[in-house]
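ok here's UbiC transcription regulator-associated domain protein:
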Amino acid sequence: MISFDKINPTSEIQSALNLSTSDSVFKLVRLRYVDTAPIVEVTTYIPTKLVPDLNKIDFSQASLYDELRKRNLPVTHVTRKLEVKKASSTISKTLKIKENDPVFYFHSYGDTKKDQKIEYSIATYRGDLNSFIIDLNIN
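and the structure:
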């Protein structure tokens, strides 16, 4: 875990989570590793009105999705938008890659079983250590 704060959401976050200007969100920034290599930086936004006690959880030890399930707010549907970008100087330092190296850039929108917007995440994955399989069922 890099940081965990309560913030006022930007218009982008408000739109993603169907929030008003008076709402606040928890901002959780995590860096995930495989062995000693950092592979993804994830910034997640959660509406404080849905989980006001989330700031009491130690996310260096706990799973966000497990904590949401415990509160009867499981993420049951996720929509992701994928882009391939060039690593900025900041993300290149964080992920220990060269500036302008390719990275996978995901925007994820998580909903509960009641179609509540519960999560908005932005994840940046190293292009050299990650791959993705996309499996579509067409009816």
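+1. Helices lie at 11-17, 64-70, 89-95.
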